[in-house]
Design goal:
elongated, mainly alpha, 3 helices, 76 residues, 78% helix
């Protein structure tokens, strides 16, 4: 019987935090922008620096949004 209790607690723990917060999504946007820049630089004749600059702007906007536009609240 002890194993079923432990399994249930593990299952409850793993599903409790399955929802992504706004800040998790912001942290996913930054590397996604650079991955898209990599793909764009491979398939396009434009220079890589154009795509990297665009990805930097997107990443900077994500950071600015997370820090200044919608900052974390105390107690979160």
């Amino acid at each position: 019987m002890a194993t079923s209790d432990r399994t249930r607690r593990t299952r409850d723990h793993s599903t409790a935090g399955s929802r992504l917060s706004r800040y998790d999504i912001l942290l996913l946007v930054i590397p996604a922008a650079f991955l898209l820049a990599l793909v764009g630089s491979v398939v396009s004749p434009l220079p890589t620096r154009v795509f990297v600059a665009g990805a930097s702007v997107v990443g900077g906007l994500a950071v600015a949004d997370g820090l200044f536009v919608n900052p974390p609240e105390r107690g979160r």
